[in-house]
Design brief:
The structure is a homodimer. Chain A is of the alpha+beta class. Chain A contains five helices and three strands; from the N terminus they run ααβααββα. In chain A, helix 2 packs across helix 5. The radius of gyration of chain A is 17 Å and the shape is globular. The two termini of chain A are 24 Å apart. Chains A and B meet through helix 1, helix 2, helix 3 and helix 5 of A and helix 1, helix 2, helix 3 and helix 5 of B.
Chain lengths: 114, 114
């Protein structure tokens, strides 16, 4: 595609990934997780995310009542664990439904005669 | 969820839809389409989009070489038809692959014990 084409592709890829970290975090934090642990969980699921993106997002989701957090001090060092709230779980369901609806739309457009 | 909760949900829904109009337009315009025709095609596929969003996007995708356009004057009034270029088709494939990869990630996270 060439360098310019790659830039265009990357910008569109970034757009299509937007919002995915929110859904992925809400799903993953049904089990309480601390920031770095969540990063590796997401990476293991193929959803690579940067700490710079994730950590502020976790605070934002907490502010919106979708996650709660609590410090755990029993480990080698204190860590803040995030857990998805019932509202967060409901939100994740709605986001997943939306994501599926997009997929149904793509399938419809794909199979259209052209 | 209450009004505040709805706002939060809507902002996340909007994020997860981002990029979807690009992919949908590239798929739909494998058959040449004019703006309003494309709007109704997308709506029929469940991908509701506003003209205010779509029309500038089409020009942007044309600028990026993913669509080409041509005026057709044989109809009741002249209309600009957009058609996906080979680069646009390649881009759509990559975006669709990315969208599928996100889905695989969600499935992975969903089935994780919690």
């Amino acid at each position: 595609m060439g360098i310019e084409g790659d830039e265009v592709l990357n910008s569109h890829l970034q757009e299509i990934r937007r919002g995915s970290v929110v859904l992925a975090s809400l799903l993953a934090c049904r089990t309480p997780r601390y920031g770095y642990g969540l990063l590796t969980t997401l990476a293991d699921a193929g959803l690579l995310t940067e700490a710079n993106t994730l950590y502020p997002l976790l605070r934002r989701l907490e502010g919106q009542g979708l996650l709660t957090s609590a410090w755990r001090t029993g480990e080698s060092r204190p860590r803040k664990y995030y857990e998805t709230t019932p509202l967060g779980i409901e939100t994740a369901e709605r986001l997943h439904t939306e994501w599926l609806a997009l997929g149904a739309g793509y399938t419809e457009l794909r199979k259209a005669e052209h």
